[in-house]
Write a structure and sequence with these properties.
Spore Coat Polysaccharide Biosynthesis Protein SpsA, Chain A; Rossmann fold; alpha/beta; 7-stranded mixed sheet; 11-stranded mixed sheet; 2 domains
């Protein structure tokens, strides 16, 4: 019978940001895959049969929607929750501490969930299939203490080569390893401020001393192969750590340091499994392009399929602008009123937990300004597409708009001279939507839009939306429509009234 072996993915830091996006959720694959997808794919391919995600409780809903739910379709998935206040009896969080207590506490959160040999990885690092294969094979041989009659615990570590783990865009921290002649780890030296050089690498010590490092050195990238008893080790050691460091607001209970102490005391040995694969990850925003290119090269070599898992889901949130200044008759420059500027905060509040990865808009000022407050807060740039603009009525200002609108909704080909029909508006808005979907696969997207333009989009996916519906929303500003796409097909349409906090489901099922 195949042995149960679990992969534990440390993702409690998934909210940490670098220059804008949530780093673990950056799309790096051609179909919107993130780095974590490739780790899970490799792990399942070599034999791991359960995934445990260590996350924060406040991230659970979003994490399940973006990652967990689709993983549950292909393997066993469980969750462990790392919280800074999850402490042994008698200890409290010091005032001013904002983060949990490091990777040791992250794995300690798996008590009661992991009862079998397990591997540990970071959520935002790419390790390569060779590393997963070697760690799995080592764990599957049953070398845990008790399996071979020895009191010394047997662990393993994927040993990457330092030169293969450096960033071109800044310094990194690595656990530089000393390895004996038998391939066992003897020491881990947590080294900060490592910088890539033409000759290899250098590190700057706290006193400013710069020392040269051997680029061929083994380094730990937090990919460990461990046994269930290690959870007891963590549980016993955490109170001792807190007694000594609990008042330090930045102190962390770290796996490399815990394992290093076990090695030096003779309580454990760690086999270093050298992997030739290059590590890569997004330490800096500028690293993303290199990661995307590396994944594309691996796909071209046949190491990965173009799409790793099943259905790709994308949510698009069209946002009709807030109240505009109708005294300005110029469509392009018409701005929001003071009330409109206040009401756009409803949009920010609505979108803040939707995992938006890209923001687009009509080029008209009122549409841009409605989504700008959210985009600025999320660190996202607003891209514009001229085809998302509002319908052109004609050459002048129209006083009897209702009669004109009713006639247009009754005949999608009807247009005034020099104006547009609803059919034309619908066609160009759908073309712009298709372009956006193609440029941001797998990402949730917000689009600043307009009443008529957005109504024609809704009508395309739900033809029951007509003139009466348009009249219902004509004064609703802002107004949000959510479109859910699976593999390019719209399967759900929902309307949101942000003032009444209500949702109207218009379409359920493939269009």
């Amino acid at each position: 019978m195949k042995k149960d072996i679990t992969l534990v993915i440390m993702a409690a830091g998934i909210g940490s940001r670098y220059g804008g996006g949530i780093k673990q959720l950056e799309s790096v694959g051609p179909c919107g895959e993130i780095i974590m997808d490739y780790s899970v794919y490799d792990a399942l391919e070599v034999g791991f049969n359960k995934i445990v995600f260590v996350i924060r409780k406040d991230l659970e809903e979003d994490f399940r929607e973006v990652i967990g739910n689709r993983m549950e379709n292909i393997c066993r998935v469980e969750y462990a929750f790392q919280e800074k206040d999850d402490l042994p009896e008698g200890f409290t969080v010091p005032e001013g501490r904002t983060k949990p207590w490091g990777t040791g506490q992250a794995i300690l959160a798996c008590r009661g969930i992991v009862n079998e040999p397990f591997a540990v990885i970071n959520a935002d690092d790419y390790y390569g299939k060779s590393a997963f294969r070697q760690v799995y094979d080592y764990l599957a041989t049953g070398l845990a203490a008790g399996d071979h009659g020895e009191s010394t615990a047997d662990y393993c570590m994927a040993g990457f080569i330092l030169k293969n783990t450096l960033s071109d865009n800044g310094t990194v921290t690595r656990g530089i390893c000393q390895v004996d002649d038998n391939g066992y780890l003897t020491k881990v030296d947590e080294t900060r401020n490592i910088r890539k050089t033409p000759q290899g690498a250098v590190a700057a010590d706290a006193d400013g001393t710069v020392r040269t490092l051997d680029g061929e050195s083994h380094v730990s990238m937090n990919m460990w192969g461990l046994t269930p008893e290690f959870l007891d080790v963590l549980s016993e050691g955490f109170p001792e750590f807190l007694k000594e460091h609990g008042d330090d607001l930045k102190a962390e209970y770290l796996l490399p340091e815990i394992i290093d102490r076990r090695i030096r005391s003779g309580q454990a040995r760690v086999k270093v499994l050298e992997t030739p694969d290059p590590w890569f990850g997004i330490t800096y925003k500028e690293d993303k392009a290199a990661v995307v290119d590396a994944i594309a090269a691996l796909i071209k070599e046949g190491k990965y399929p173009e799409r790793l898992f099943g259905t790709m889901k994308t949510k698009v949130y069209f946002v009709r602008h807030a109240e505009p200044n109708y005294e300005n008759h110029d469509d392009l420059t018409r701005e929001l009123t003071e009330q409109g500027m206040k009401d756009r905060l409803l949009v920010t509040e609505f979108l803040k937990d939707k995992n938006i990865g890209a923001v687009w808009s009509s080029p008209y000022h009122r549409a841009i300004d409605t989504v700008k407050h959210f985009a600025d807060g999320a660190g996202l740039e607003i891209e514009t597409d001229y085809d998302f603009r509002e319908r052109k009525v004609g050459d002048g200002w129209l006083d009897d708009f209702d009669s004109f609108a009713e006639k247009q909704w009754g005949d999608f080909a009807f247009a005034l001279e020099h104006g547009e029909s609803l059919g034309e508006v619908q066609k160009r808005n759908l073309a712009a939507l298709e372009r956006v979907l193609n440029t941001a696969p797998g990402k949730n997207i917000a689009i600043g839009s307009h009443g008529t333009a957005l109504s024609t989009v809704v009508n395309h996916f739900d033809p029951a939306f007509g003139y009466e519906d348009f009249q219902r929303i004509v004064d609703l500003m802002p107004w949000v429509v959510e479109l859910t796409f699976e593999d390019g097909h719209c399967v759900e349409v929902r309307e949101y009234d942000l003032f009444q906090n209500t949702c109207l489901e218009r379409l359920k099922g493939e269009h």
